[in-house]
Amino acid sequence: MARKPENPIFLERERYRMRRLMDAARLAPVLAAFLFLLPLMWSASEAVKTASVLVYLFAAWGLLTAVTAFLSRKLHKIPRDKWQERP
Amino acid sequence: MGMLNVLVTVSLAYVTFLFMVAFFADRAAARGRSKWLQSPLIYTLSLSIYCTAWTFYGAVGYAARSGVEFLTIYLGPSIVMIGWWLILRKLVRIGRSQRVTSIADLISSRFGKSNSLAVVVTVIAVVGTTPYIALQLQSVTLALDAFAGEEVTPSVGPSATALWLAVGLALFTVLFGTRNLDANERHDGVVMAIAVEAVVKLVALVAVGLFVIWGIGGGIGPTMERISQSEIARWDVSAGRWMGLMFLSSAALLTLPRMFQVMVVENEDERHLATASWAFPAYLLLMSLFVVPIAVLGLEYMPDGANPDLFVLTLPLAEGRNTLAMLSFLGGFSSATSMVIVAAIALSTMVSNHIVMPIWLSTQGSTAMVAGDVRHVVLLSRRLSIMGVLTLGYLYHHTTGGGEALASIGLISFAGVAQTLPALLGGIFWRGATRVGALMGMVVGFVLWAYTLFMPSFGPEVFMSETFLREGPFGWGWLRPEALFGIASSDPVVHSVVWSMSLNTFTFFIFSLISFPTPLERLQGAQFVNVFDHSARPGSWSRGLAEAEDLLVMAQRILGPSEAQSLFRSEAVSQGITGYLPETTPEFLQRLEREMAGSVGAATAHAMVGQILGRASVTVEDLMAVADETAQIMEYSNQLEAKSAELTRTARQLRAANEKLTQMSVQKDAFLSQISHELRTPMTSIRAFSEILRDGGLDDAALAKYAGIIHDEAIRLTRLLDDLLDLSVLENGQVSLNERVGKIGDVLNQAVAAAGIENSRLRVVRSKVREDLMIYTDLDRLSQVFINLISNALKYCDAARPRLEVSIRDLGDTLAIDFIDNGSGIPMASQDVIFEKFSRVGSDQAAGGAGLGLAICREIMHRLGGTVSYLPGQGGGAFRVILPVTVVRSGR
Amino acid sequence: MGKRVLLIEDEPNIIEAISFILSRDGWDVDTHANGIDAVDKVIARQPDLVILDVMLPGRSGFDILRDLRAHDGTAALPVLMLTARGQTKDRETAKALGVSRFMTKPFSNAEVLESVRSLANGVEAPQ
Question: Could you list the residue ranges that cross the membrane (chain A) (predicted)?
Answer without folding.
Answer: 53-72
